[in-house]
Specification:
The complex is a heterodimer.
Chain A lengths: L24 E2 L16 E8 L2 H16 L3 E7 L5 H11 L5 E7 L4 H8 L4 E5 L8 H10 L7 E5 L16 E7 L6 H4 L1 H5 L1 E7 L11 H11 L4 E4 L8 H15 L8
Parallel strand pairs in A: 1-5, 3-6, 3-7, 4-5, 4-6, 7-8, 8-9
Helix pairs in contact in A: 1-4
Chain B lengths: L2 H19 L4 E9 L6 H12 L8 E7 L1 E5 L5 E4 L14 E5 L3 E8 L1
Parallel strand pairs in B: 1-2
Antiparallel strand pairs in B: 1-6, 3-4, 3-5
Helix pairs in contact in B: 1-2
The chains are: A alpha/beta, B alpha+beta.
């Protein structure tokens, strides 16, 4: 039986999903569970439970597990094609000695996890099937397969989507939205929720800014408008410009999250 | 279409309640939906019937109660009520507003038999 949710026995849980623990994970199956209607007297039950309470329970379990390790976990969100995977590959190169791992979320294919593994870092690919976001349950399963060292960094690359991932807590320390300059200055205004939910916005591909008639200051103003507290880093993974700021930011966050290594017996 | 996931969340809660509260059928579900929540109400309505099929809540009426959004204005430092996520501060006209409440997505109550 799965330690995270009790699934995998065929008798527990009201959901189904492929349950392969030897390789990448695919969540493409539908819901199950049946109940039959009967009749009795009508009554009102005060429920007062969050719609995402089940997801939030899994997220809390993930968070407890990660915090016990002193890990720093970042949930990286963006639209498709913003350059998240390229940024991650360059980040792994820059963090050479830092223990880290990556969970990759996409609807299909293990391409991104393959790119991460090519750098030497451990990665698990989660395929969401028709799903448009990772949820905390999927991440819990991915964590079972990842060798995470004490005080490691964990990068969760969410499904490319500026809408749905905003609502789903995965147990991360914070969300980071990657926004490439080619997407246009108005993205924060069009998709405010994801930027409001993020601690940091990375304005990526700034080497392309001169070629696509964009106003970098307007990006900044629009980000602040939907999240006045958001931190902003401009960078190009291709040229390396701004990468030092991102690495410094990550190191500082890990220092906040890290716990002293346990003494040996 | 994360509204399908939301409906699956509703179904999970309802099925848990059916076990602990002993009922066979849900006739009405009332949700509180915050103005700044990630819910598109028409999409939720659309997904609801399909996801509830085969559950104790099949055929239940779905009622969504709007919860106002409140935000902190970073210009005048007042907490204000906002109807629109990108509206200006009604007090000072500022445009830097951080939501402080109104992102609720909660099952308030259910009518059962």
């Amino acid at each position: 039986m799965c330690a995270v949710c009790g699934c995998g026995t065929g008798t527990v849980g009201n959901h189904t999903h492929a349950h392969r623990h030897d390789t990448d994970i695919h969540f493409g199956n539908g819901a199950a569970g049946v109940s039959l209607a009967g009749a009795s007297q009508a009554r009102l039950i005060e429920v007062e439970i969050d719609i995402l309470s089940q997801n939030n329970r899994y997220a809390a379990q993930n968070r407890t597990r990660l915090r016990a390790l002193g890990a720093f976990t970042v949930n990286m969100v963006s639209s498709p094609g913003s350059g998240k995977t390229t940024l991650l590959c360059k980040t792994i190169e820059a963090l050479r000695k830092q223990p880290l791992a990556v969970i990759e979320g996409d609807q299909q294919t293990a391409r991104d996890a393959d790119r991460i593994r090519a750098t030497g870092a451990p990665a698990v690919q989660v395929n969401t099937g028709k799903g448009c976001h990772l949820d905390a349950h999927m991440v819990g399963h991915a964590l079972e397969q990842l060798p995470l060292a004490q005080n490691a960094m964990l990068f969760i690359e969410n499904v490319g989507n500026l809408v749905c991932p905003a609502a789903f807590d995965l147990g991360e320390d914070c969300k980071v939205t990657v926004l490439s300059v080619t997407e246009g200055e108005d993205k924060p205004l069009k998709y405010p929720d994801i930027f409001t939910a993020s601690r940091l916005a990375i304005l990526s591909k700034i080497d392309l800014a001169p070629h696509c008639d964009v106003d970098l200051n307007l990006f900044h103003r629009n980000l602040i408008r939907v999240n006045p507290g958001i931190e902003i880093i401009w960078l190009s993974a291709r040229t390396g410009e701004g990468m030092a700021d991102w690495i410094t930011w990550l190191d500082a966050r890990l220092a906040e999250a890290a716990r002293p290594q346990k003494e040996g017996p | 279409m994360h509204e399908i996931s939301f409906c699956e969340g509703i179904r999970t809660v309802i099925e848990d309640q059916a076990k602990t509260q002993s009922f066979d059928r849900v006739t009405t579900i009332r949700l509180e939906i915050g103005r700044f929540s990630c819910v598109e109400k028409s999409a939720l309505d659309f997904a609801f019937d399909a996801v509830m099929k085969g559950s104790v809540a099949e055929g239940a009426a779905l009622i969504m109660i709007d919860v106002p959004g409140r935000a902190m204005c970073y210009d005048c430092l007042q907490e204000v009520e906002l109807n629109d996520r990108l509206a200006q501060c009604p007090d000072c006209g500022g445009e830097k507003l951080m939501p402080v409440s109104g992102d609720v997505m909660r099952i308030k109550n259910i009518e059962v038999e």
